[in-house]
Design goal:
two-stranded parallel ribbon; 1 helix; 2 strands
């Protein structure tokens, strides 16, 4: 116990960057670990 929650973000390239950054900011303020995943081409 005592571990921070993990947020795995798989974001489509059509999502505006500001939306992604907003979610990232909220997660970081709550001390969550954030992982941004991409799909290999």
């Amino acid at each position: 116990m005592g571990e921070s929650p993990i947020l795995l973000m798989r974001v489509d390239q059509r999502v505006p960057a500001g939306v992604t950054v907003g979610v990232f900011d909220i997660a970081k303020r709550n001390k969550w670990t954030v992982i941004i995943a991409t799909r290999p081409k």
